[in-house]
Write a structure and sequence with these properties.
Length: 460
C-alpha cells in the first residue's frame, strides 16, 4: 500500500523540525510517527526507506534516554554531597560558565587550578611572600625603592697617570712640608695595586734633590705607613732603588743613610736587611746594605738618624743659622771666592733670613780694620743683589737693623758712624741700596763747647 507523498513528507520532516521543543514532545511525535507507519489496519510490509527511517528514530531515542539518565545521576550525587545543583549540562547557562575544555581534551579540570581568569590574582587562600624587585622589570621604579645612595666611583690610575698626578704633589710637599695634605690628596686617588709606586717616586725625587728634600721624604714615608701604604710597599720602593744603585751612587752616595733612616722610623720592616744577606751580587748594593746595618747597630748613630740629612731650611735654630752665616763670611774674607759664598748661602735654604747675612757683613766691616774688608763686602753684596739671592726687602732690613743698633756698636767701635757712612756711600754708588736707605743713615752729632767770649752760652 503506497503512502501519500504529503504524509511521507510530513513524517520525514518531523525529526528535523526546528525550534525549541522539549524532549518529551519529540518522543511523542516519534511515537505518533510510528503509529502512522503501522497504520490503522495493523502491521504491514515496510519499504526500504521506511525501515531506514524507523531505525534512525530508534537510535536517536536511545541516545536521548541515555543522556537524560546520566544527567539525573550526577544531580543526585551533588545533592547527596550537600552542594547546590548546577544548571543542566545542555543549557546555555551551564555552557557559559563551564571551564572544561570544549575540544574534548584534558581531564575536565579548570584551567590554572582555578587561579586564572580576568581580575584574578591567584587561587583562593594563597598568600604570596615578599619578592625582591627586579631592576630589569619594565615597571621597575628606582625612586620608589627607598633611600638611594649614590657613590662616586674613581677608576684605578694607570702607570702614566699615577706619575702625572703624584709627582706635582711631592714637589709641592718639598715647599710646604705638610704631610697631612699629601695624605688627603693621595686618599682622593684610586691607587689600587700601584700603591708601591708612590714611595718609589718620592725616593727618586728626593735623591735628585737637596738634603732637606731627603729629610722631608723620610718624614713623609714614616707618616704614610699604615695610612696610605704598607711597609711592604716601602720595601718594594727601596728594592727598586737597590737595583738602580749603580747609576744612582754616582750622584747620591747617601743612599745607605736613606735605608737606615727608613728602618729606624719603622717605615721598612725590621727584617729588610736580613732578606738580602748573601743574595746580593751588586757590589754597590752590598756596600749600601752593610753601611745601613752598621748605622743601625751603633746606638749613638741610631739616636742621630733623626737628623741624618741635617735640619733643612727654616726648621734650623736661629743660633745655628747665625753661626753658619758668620762662618760663611769669614771664609769669604780669607778665600775671596764669591761663587763659593753664593753656593753656601743657597745651601742654607733660608731666603727669608738673608737679612742676617747683610747685617753680619756690615757689622764685620765696622769691627774690622783696613780697606780690604770694605771692598770685598761691597763686591759680595753687589753680586748677591744682581743674582737676586738677596732681595730689596732683605737688603733694606739688614741695613736698618745696623742703624737701630749703631749706638750699642759705637761703644765698642768709636768710629762706627764714620765707617758706616763711608760704607753706605759706596753701596749707593754701586747701586746696591736706594737713596731713601742712604738718607736714613744716622749721622753723629757734634757738640760745640762754650768759649770765654760767648757769655757762658752754648753755641747752636
Amino acid at each position: 500500500m503506497a503512502v501519500p507523498a504529503a504524509e511521507l513528507g510530513a513524517a520525514d520532516r518531523a525529526p528535523f523540525a526546528t525550534g525549541p521543543c522539549p524532549a518529551a514532545a519529540a518522543e511523542e511525535e516519534e511515537e505518533d510517527g510510528d503509529e502512522e507507519l503501522l497504520g490503522a489496519g495493523g502491521p504491514r510490509a515496510w519499504t526500504p526507506q521506511e525501515k531506514l527511517l524507523h531505525e534512525a528514530r530508534l537510535k536517536a531515542k536511545a541516545k536521548r534516554r541515555l543522556r537524560r539518565t546520566s544527567s539525573r545521576d550526577s544531580a543526585r550525587e551533588s545533592l547527596s554531597e550537600g552542594t547546590e545543583p548546577g544548571p543542566e549540562p545542555g543549557s546555555p547557562k551551564g555552557r557559559a560558565h563551564d571551564r572544561r575544555s570544549r575540544m574534548g581534551k584534558g581531564r575536565g579540570l579548570p584551567k590554572k587550578g582555578g587561579a586564572g581568569g580576568k581580575g584574578v590574582w591567584g587561587a583562593p587562600g594563597v598568600v604570596y611572600g615578599y619578592q625582591e624587585p627586579d631592576a630589569r622589570d619594565p615597571n621597575y621604579d628606582e625612586a620608589a625603592q627607598g633611600d638611594t645612595v649614590y657613590a662616586t666611583v674613581v677608576p684605578e690610575l694607570e702607570e702614566g697617570e699615577l706619575e702625572k698626578n703624584v709627582q706635582p704633589m711631592v714637589l709641592e710637599y718639598f715647599e710646604h712640608g705638610d704631610t697631612s695634605e699629601v695624605m688627603e690628596l693621595l686618599r682622593g686617588l684610586n691607587l689600587g695595586s700601584r700603591r708601591h709606586a708612590v714611595p718609589s717616586l718620592a725616593v727618586a725625587l728626593a735623591l735628585e734633590g737637596k738634603a732637606s728634600h731627603r729629610e722631608l721624604t723620610s718624614r713623609l714615608l714614616s707618616d704614610l705607613v699604615g695610612r696610605v701604604v704598607t711597609p711592604e710597599d716601602i720595601a718594594w720602593a727601596f728594592d727598586k732603588m737597590l737595583r738602580d744603585l749603580p747609576d744612582l751612587i754616582l750622584d747620591t752616595p747617601e743612599a745607605p743613610q736613606f735605608i737606615a733612616r727608613a728602618v729606624a722610623d719603622h717605615a721598612l720592616p725590621l727584617d729588610f736587611l736580613e732578606r738580602y744577606k748573601g743574595r746580593v751580587d751588586c757590589e754597590h748594593a752590598r756596600a749600601a746594605l752593610d753601611r745601613a746595618a752598621v748605622l743601625l747597630r751603633i746606638k749613638r748613630d741610631v739616636n742621630r738618624l733623626d737628623n741624618v740629612w741635617g735640619v733643612g731650611g727654616g726648621q734650623r735654630p736661629v743660633k745655628h743659622l747665625v753661626k753658619e752665616m758668620n762662618l760663611l763670611l769669614r771664609e769669604y774674607l780669607l778665600s775671596g771666592e764669591v761663587s763659593e759664598a753664593e753656593h753656601c748661602l743657597r745651601e742654607l735654604e733660608v731666603p727669608h733670613f738673608h737679612h742676617e747675612l747683610v747685617y753680619e757683613a756690615v757689622v764685620m766691616v765696622l769691627e774690622g780694620s783696613g780697606e780690604g774688608p770694605v771692598a770685598m763686602m761691597v763686591t759680595l753684596l753687589k753680586v748677591l743683589w744682581e743674582t737676586g739671592l738677596v732681595t730689596l726687602d732683605q737688603m733694606n732690613r739688614g741695613f736698618q737693623r745696623v742703624y737701630e743698633e749703631l749706638g750699642d756698636i759705637s761703644l765698642d767701635v768709636p768710629l762706627a758712624h764714620s765707617l758706616l757712612e763711608r760704607l753706605v756711600e759706596l753701596c749707593f754708588d754701586r747701586g746696591i741700596i736706594t737713596r731713601a736707605l742712604r738718607d736714613a743713615c744716622p749721622a753723629r752729632g757734634r757738640k760745640r763747647f762754650v768759649s770765654e767770649g760767648d757769655g757762658g752760652q752754648v753755641k747752636q
